[in-house]
Amino acid sequence: MSTVELRIALVGLPNCGKTALFNRMTGSRQKVANYPGVTVERKEGYHQSASGRRYRLLDLPGIYSLTPTTLDEAITRDVALGRLASEPRPETIVLVADATHLPLSMRLALEVKKLGLPMIVVLNMTDLARKRGYSIDREKLSKELGVPVVETVAIARGGADALIRHLDTLPATEVPATSPKGEWQEPSSIDVQQTHEEAARILAAASYLEPGRSEFFAALDRALLHPLFGLLVLATLLFFVFQAVFSWAAVPMDLIDAGVASLADWVRGGMPDGPLRSLLADGIIAGVGSVIIFLPQIIILFAFILALEDSGYLPRAAYLLDRVMGSVGLSGRAFIPLLSSFACAIPGIMATRTIPSIRDRMATIMVAPLMTCSARLPVYALLIAAFIPDRAVGGFNLQGIVLFALYFAGVAGALLVAWALKKFRGGGDTHLLMLELPDYQWPRLGNLAFGLWERARIFLGRAGGIILALMVVLWFLSTYPAPPAGATGAAIEYSFAGQLGQALSVVLAPIGFNWQISIALIPGLAAREVAVGALGTVYALAGDEEVVSTALSTVIASQWSLATGLALLAWYVFAPQCLATLAVVKRETNSWRYPLIMTAYLFGLAYLAAFVTYRVAVLFGAG
Amino acid sequence: MTPVEPHARTLSGLKAGESAVVERVDADDVLARRLLEIGFYPGAAVEMLAVMWPADDPVAVRVGGATFALRRQEADRVKVK
């Protein structure tokens, strides 16, 4: 390993392709953590060039200027100024500029240059820009700016070579570690205007030809941002996604189901009866198997979310929904964190860091768990398969419609809670939107595949880690103590879990939950989807030997009333059955107050919703 | 001094498809600052791309080769001619 190491910080506007460049250069040699004491993500990586030099790259949060409005932006400024005790000042700044629209990047470059650090300007996405008629005299630009300028295409293999070649020419010894030229002063409004004018002058001097806007994308924007048509497209798109999650996933799910069943049969057939066989077949295979079956649905949901994110559509959806969200006291900016929460509330809550107003941010955090995360999907899917007939209604799959309704219930609940929060705290606060709508891009397959692989790995990692462990614990609690001699009921009724479930069902009986559900809800606190595995284990151990070979949905369909099934669905729309989310809320808000309020109000709503659903269903004869 | 400035229209007054030139950004606070930074400086060309119903809020504006979604109260700060 080379001892010479150059510390480089990547600075640039949001959406300039900075992170793509970072990924291109560092590959898998990345470390992601937080800056100490604050919840801003710190991304560091290493690049070893062909010449043997080693670079330490820091991917700083995107900024428009060195005057921060959010925590993330403040970090970029503080790192660049060497104000963070934990972070040595970078030795070189690589300013990444999106070649498809240079003016703002050039202004930022002028502002960053005043920090007094060596700087390289990188013109990124030049391939795309050239297609749209961009051209620039790079030599002239470099002369006018007074810093080296290189071109990159971060998304292409070898696209960062020009930058690496340039970095390799930098002397390792002459780089000053810390030497701000005098005291840096925050730029004034006059300075901002002057840098705008200077940037325009420099671009003109470098014979900059602004790339035209693609006619197709301009037309697309006219349609997608249209008040009526745009909202229709958004609604259709979301509806289509939920239909796809159900109908496309059916075949792979059946395959996994059959695989799990034959694996359990094989274990049963090949082992003598005893605790180990029971642990393997009833505990591990039945429990973990009933969770991994939902992998296809999660992959499909994430494929859509990632593709929409890549395409640049998401901020447009935020624009379309800003009015609705504003009326309940949320910012349109809350849309992206809330949409991420459909995958998982944890990244969603972390994404609220980009919301400048503390009150907006807290309101967003409080409602984020109401967005239907992918961990609810296994629960919903199981219950829908058991209780909702698989038939077409008006050309749509009824199961898909119910799933859409559940997602909708979560959103409606969130809007209601946000509105109540606004009333409770009193209004009067002004909210900022000011959201950039980046140019559209075709989603890149490589990126998509990488993102999906990450998701699948996390999901399976959880299935193999925490869920597996909980299943073993649950199997133990459900198996011991053994029933007394001469017992008539199923063995599990005499176990620890059975006793606990029966105690809990005193509280949960009014909302229609039996003791099996009550047991499953306890490990389900760790993560929602665990409840499905827990039900699998509980019913597998409940006596009937064929249960494991039969789909769990068939079993519960025959043993629960429709009212119970619906009440459990309603419960899951609200219940905070995820300790990890509460832990993140504690960390992000740095207090116990918010997670405690969240737990209380979500359990309250869940109980209420399940109670009403159960009673109404019973009234209609579904009991 | 006349209280009425005939040329001072606000950005939010533009219809979808209309273009104008920024005259100034009102006040000097965080909001005005950020508007200035994202390209709404005197002399910059702007084009209204889309206006949302029902209250003309928010709006989507093209400025300096980028597109921004602004709330009405934000767009109100930018005076155009």
Topology:
The complex is a heterodimer of chains A (623) and B (81).
Chain A: E1 5-12, H1 18-26, E2 30-34, E3 41-48, E4 54-59, H2 71-81, E5 92-98, H3 103-113, E6 119-124, H4 126-131, H5 138-145, E7 149-151, H6 161-169, H7 189-205, H8 215-224, H9 227-247, H10 250-270, H11 275-292, H12 295-311, H13 314-327, H14 335-343, H15 345-351, H16 358-367, H17 376-387, E8 392-393, E9 396-397, H18 398-425, E10 435-436, H19 445-479, H20 496-508, H21 515-521, H22 530-541, H23 552-559, H24 562-574, H25 579-589, H26 593-619
Helix pairs in contact in A: 3-7, 9-12, 9-18, 10-11, 11-19, 11-22, 12-19, 14-15, 15-25, 16-18, 17-18, 17-23, 17-24, 18-24, 19-22, 20-21, 21-22, 24-26, 25-26
Chain B: E1 9-10, E2 19-25, H1 30-37, E3 45-51, E4 59-63, E5 66-70, H2 72-75, E6 78-80
Antiparallel strand pairs in B: 1-6, 2-3, 2-6, 3-4, 4-5
Please give a structural write-up:
Chain A is α/β, with parallel strands linked by helices and 623 residues long. Helices cover 58% and strands 8% of the residues of chain A. Chain A has helices at 18-26, 71-81, 103-113, 126-131, 138-145, 161-169, 189-205, 215-224, 227-247, 250-270, 275-292, 295-311, 314-327, 335-343, 345-351, 358-367, 376-387, 398-425, 445-479, 496-508, 515-521, 530-541, 552-559, 562-574, 579-589, 593-619; strands at 5-12, 30-34, 41-48, 54-59, 92-98, 119-124, 149-151, 392-393, 396-397, 435-436. Chain A has a 7-stranded mixed sheet with strand order 2-3-4-1-5-6-7, with helices on both faces. Chain A has a two-stranded antiparallel sheet with strand order 8-9. In chain A, strand 5 (92-98), helix 3 and strand 6 (119-124) form a beta-alpha-beta unit. Chain A is elongated, with a radius of gyration of 28 Å. With 81 residues, chain B is an alpha+beta fold. Helix content of chain B is 15%, strand content 36%. Chain B is built from 2 helices and 6 strands; from the N terminus they run ββαβββαβ. Chain B has a 6-stranded antiparallel sheet with strand order 1-6-2-3-4-5. In chain B, strand 4 (59-63) and strand 5 (66-70) form a beta hairpin. The model of chain B has no long low-confidence stretch (mean pLDDT 87). Classes of the chains: A alpha/beta (623), B alpha+beta (81). The A-B interface holds A 64-65, 67, 69, 100-104, 107, 189, 192-193, 196-197, 210-211, 221-222, 225-228, 230, 315, 318-320, 322-323, 326, 332, 430-439 and B 28, 30-39, 41-44, 49-55, 57-58, 60, 64-71, 73-74.
